[in-house]
Amino acid sequence: MKKFFIYLVLAASINACTTKDNAHLNKAEDVEAKDQMALSSWSDSTRQLIEAWVKDVTDTSSPNFIPVPDRIAVFDNDGTLWPEQPVPNQLIFAIANLKALAPTHPEFQKDQVLKGILDGDLSPMKKAGEIGFLKLLAASHTNQTEDAFNLAVRNWADTARDAKFHKLYKEVIYLPMVELLNYLRANEFKTFIVSGGGVDFMRVWTEEAYGIPPYQVIGSYAAVKYDVVDGKPVITKTAGSPYVDDKAGKPQAIHQFIGKVPVFCGGNSDGDQAMMQYTSGSKYKSMCVILHHTDATREYEYDLKTLSGHLETALVEAKEKNWLVVDMKKDFKRIFSFD
Questions:
Q1: So what CATH class is 40-86+170-331?
Q2: pLDDT exceeds 90 at position 303
């Protein structure tokens, strides 16, 4: 009887160990399956590279472990999180807002560039080059209160549709990149936008589109002034020398507004190269991802010959520093949620 009891105990112990081992295996399989679902729009090979890096730097037993407070991930916006062809979307908004403001601004008609835009003729602005573009931005973005400008952007984001895809601009966002943002946040990374686009323009809709709140959005900006009007605090956007958050301006802005060197960087052009260099200089094992726009059917194909999103020197450095170049035609199973 005693021997029989011992056999029962041993059998139970063996069964318990086997069950425990199986549970461990099942848990590992569940994690792997969850990771695959998290980045389901990526090609398997690229997904595995991203997952391997994340697992390495979030494993407390790894020599490459990154503490949670230092898990800073930065992303460009135009061409990285949503399209920037045939022109950046903020230019579309600027033209729309100029037309909305025109009835109360008769002085627009006295300027050849602005009058041309209002009449549907962009040639005077193109002929004026950068000066013409800055005139448009100044007229459509300044001398407005914070609330008025935010409302204008919100109305545009809720109604304006992309001419190629016939969807709201805020819906024409790269599904794999949204998956990547979510995957990083699930692994306790803090995600920031660091873009050449206007910071006030982006902050209105980025949380809805990407899950990135306004206070984690860095962009180009001009001057503002503060007043108290009828007892109410008011911020007004004013004309002034803008800070352009592009190229070398990106790491400078990261230093000013984040205060930590990123360990992950996503971009798509030479304008993001300095930000990737800065990320590569981290004391931790970092990762840089460059989107190469190669899909003329599902999106746009461009690199060298483009007014926005020129990609050349960053590709060269990518090979030197082992940055991950994502071929959107090959590495994105889906580009948009509506594909």
A1: alpha beta
A2: yes
